[in-house]
């Protein structure tokens, strides 16, 4: 039993069974295997499971008792025959509320195993209180996957009942997942009380508990499962772990689509409160899907064209004031605080939609996909600028500068608001980088640039550099206020994009300009190393970049590569290469848009497949434009999953993996 925890037998109406008080030594019928079930039970479960679909056809609606939801899918499936005979009552609906099927029960030996492994252990009340406070202060504003009012109603009822009990409605799986996400921000005193040697070790404790409960299907509520695995996606294990953030986000998306969260319930008999919760949960799936795809260099799982669920709005975050009267004063205040900061998530959600458009349009790996057109870049840039120009008032720079509240909640909210602006600068880099480096851009024809192309590429590079510098300046401001520890997990992904531009700027600069560029690189690395104390992904990224930054100059000295700036990085880029563009807005050079559009019109007449001409192809189907041994930026930081497939022990040595495991 862990220090600061107590073993509990938590069970609730959505659980399969309460954990046993003792471990059985054998089954009641030795001739039966653990997989055998009485035929009568099989028949009863079968009838219970098919009853829900009969309710759909018979137009029956569940009463006031227990209910569950069924999503029957698109019209090419079961709904087709009713569509063909024009039975609009069924053909027009895909979501239904029906009586629940019989709950499956775990075998006693399974429950005993879970108890022996500590899956039912839960922290002491004071530590739970700290973690819950941290969750709603740090995690919930950027991932509002649960309803705060409902949570506190269940949690405080549990406290009034004297602790966890079989009648509790609070999901143990969800609670352990919340603790996993919140433990990144635990205080030194809280960490000491937990008995864990490090934040990473504490996160692993909660992750393993949650994973056991998930693997044994202890939680039956499918909406709760989506919420829980989204939070489990904040765990990033070792490089060779079978499951990681990518896995859990995929599970959440698959479950959400199976429940129909991506579709508009329309005329279905789904209550408004449930619809609002579904919209929020699905929005969180979209948000995490885009950021994980960006950080890992993998495709977005959610296809926007497959979704017609209405956009989440401020109304979906509002709580009926009458419900707050049932909560304690502290809980009611927390619920109101969550509602007040909801515009931050809505802005970031809009940003991730643009991110998804950019990834799908500009970073598709297949050579069969035609290169982006002028219209593609114009559309993406227009979307980005329109979003940024119309930020919610509380997220605008002038409003943040006036946000000087002394409370910790106010300071964390400031970090989240600044994160909106950092995201804008990263999206700018994401959109303009292909014009300079990417194989599909008009400048990527085996590295050959004519004079006009060089001007356009230089303008795009200036935009990337200005945004990387502006993002670094924001991070510097947060560091000066000692707020780096409040940065969200997605900050590690942000630094991947920013560091690549900053390093190339340092690589291609000289003299005082190089010194200034080095300062920005060092600052970004310093912040990354600070984040690695709690975010495992930051450790991998830091190790990769540290090794890469050392390796490239060494190989250049040995003559195996040449650190040669591209042709456009000469006089044409001198205006933006100084360091800076460090202003908060990251403005484009005055004639940048005209240069880029003019040259794209010239080069994108008919370029399908032309980027592959005379360009070597690696085993990831990525085309790398370079001449001879000249070092190409796309070779240093390819926009693919190369980084995540790379064995870090090859560049850091065997001791890296051994040292890394000491915290676990």
From TrEMBL:
Residues 573-587 have a biased composition (Gly residues). Residues 1-43, 572-592 are annotated as: Disordered. Residues 15-27 have a biased composition (Low complexity). SMART domains: Fungal_trans (SM00906). InterPro entries: Fungal_Detox/Toxin_TFs (IPR052761), XnlR_reg_dom (IPR007219). Keywords: Nucleus. GO terms for molecular function: DNA binding; zinc ion binding. It comes from the Eukaryota. Residues 245-317 form the Xylanolytic transcriptional activator regulatory domain. Residues 1-14 have a biased composition (Polar residues). GO terms for biological process: DNA-templated transcription. The keyword Membrane does not apply. This is Xylanolytic transcriptional activator regulatory domain-containing protein. It comes from Knufia peltigerae.
């Amino acid at each position: 039993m862990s220090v600061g925890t107590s073993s509990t037998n938590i069970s609730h109406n959505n659980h399969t069974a309460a954990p046993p008080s003792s471990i059985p030594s054998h089954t009641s019928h030795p001739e039966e295997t653990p997989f055998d079930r009485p035929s009568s039970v099989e028949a009863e479960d079968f009838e219970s499971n098919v009853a829900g679909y009969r309710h759909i056809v018979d137009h029956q609606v569940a009463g006031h008792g227990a209910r569950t939801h069924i999503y029957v899918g698109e019209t090419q499936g079961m709904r087709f025959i009713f569509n063909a005979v024009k039975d609009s009552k069924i053909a027009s609906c895909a979501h239904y509320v029906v009586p629940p099927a019989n709950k499956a029960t775990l075998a006693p030996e399974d429950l005993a195993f879970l108890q022996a492994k500590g899956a039912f252990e839960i922290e002491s009340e004071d530590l739970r209180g700290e973690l819950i406070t941290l969750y709603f202060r740090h995690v919930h504003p950027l991932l509002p996957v649960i309803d705060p009012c409902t949570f506190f109603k269940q949690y405080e009822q549990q406290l009034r009942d004297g602790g966890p009990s079989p009648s509790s409605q609070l999901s143990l799986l969800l609670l352990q997942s919340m603790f996993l996400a919140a433990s990144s921000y635990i205080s030194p005193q809280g960490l000491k009380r937990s008995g864990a040697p490090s934040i990473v070790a504490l996160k692993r404790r909660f992750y393993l508990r949650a994973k056991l409960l998930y693997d044994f299907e202890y939680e039956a509520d499918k909406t709760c499962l989506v919420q829980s695995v989204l939070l489990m996606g904040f765990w990033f294990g070792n490089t060779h772990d079978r499951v990681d953030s990518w896995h859990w986000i995929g599970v959440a998306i698959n479950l959400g689509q199976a429940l129909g969260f991506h579709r508009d319930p329309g005329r279905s008999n789904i209550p408004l409160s449930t619809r609002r919760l579904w919209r929020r949960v699905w929005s969180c799936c979209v948000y995490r899907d885009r950021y994980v795809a960006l950080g890992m260099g993998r495709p977005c799982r959610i296809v926007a064209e497959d979704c017609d669920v209405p956009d989440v709005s401020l109304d979906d975050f509002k709580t009926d004031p009458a419900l707050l009267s049932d909560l304690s004063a502290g809980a009611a205040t927390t619920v109101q605080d969550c509602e007040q900061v909801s515009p931050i998530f809505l802005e970031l959600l809009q940003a991730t939609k643009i991110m998804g458009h950019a990834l799908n349009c500009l970073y598709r790996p297949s050579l069969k996909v035609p290169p982006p057109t002028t219209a593609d870049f114009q559309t993406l840039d227009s979307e980005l600028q329109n979003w940024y120009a119309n930020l919610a008032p509380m997220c605008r720079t002038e409003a943040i500068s006036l946000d000087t509240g002394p409370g910790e909640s106010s300071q964390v909210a400031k970090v989240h608001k600044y994160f909106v602006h950092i995201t804008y600068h990263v999206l700018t880099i994401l959109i303009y980088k292909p014009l300079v480096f990417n194989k599909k851009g008009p400048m990527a024809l085996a590295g050959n640039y004519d004079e006009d192309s060089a001007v356009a590429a230089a303008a795009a590079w200036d935009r990337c550099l200005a945004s990387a510098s502006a993002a670094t300046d924001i991070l510097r401001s947060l560091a000066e206020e000692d707020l780096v520890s409040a940065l969200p997990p997605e900050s590690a992904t942000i630094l991947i994009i920013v560091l690549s531009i900053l390093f190339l700027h340092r690589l291609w600069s000289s003299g005082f300009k190089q010194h200034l560029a080095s300062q920005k690189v060092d600052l970004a690395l310093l912040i990354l190393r600070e984040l690695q104390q709690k975010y495992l992904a930051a450790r991998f990224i830091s190790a990769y970049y540290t090794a890469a930054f050392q390796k490239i100059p060494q190989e250049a000295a040995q003559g195996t590569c040449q650190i040669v700036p591209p042709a456009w990085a000469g006089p044409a880029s001198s205006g933006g290469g100084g360091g800076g563009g460090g202003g908060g807005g990251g403005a484009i050079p005055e004639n940048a848009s005209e240069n880029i559009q003019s040259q794209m019109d010239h080069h994108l007449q008919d370029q399908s497949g032309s980027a592959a001409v005379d360009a070597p192809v690696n085993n990831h189907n990525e085309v790398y434009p370079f001449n001879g041994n000249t070092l190409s930026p796309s070779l240093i930081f390819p926009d693919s999953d190369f980084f995540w497939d790379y064995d870090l022990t090859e560049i850091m040595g065997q001791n890296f993996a051994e040292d890394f495991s000491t915290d676990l």
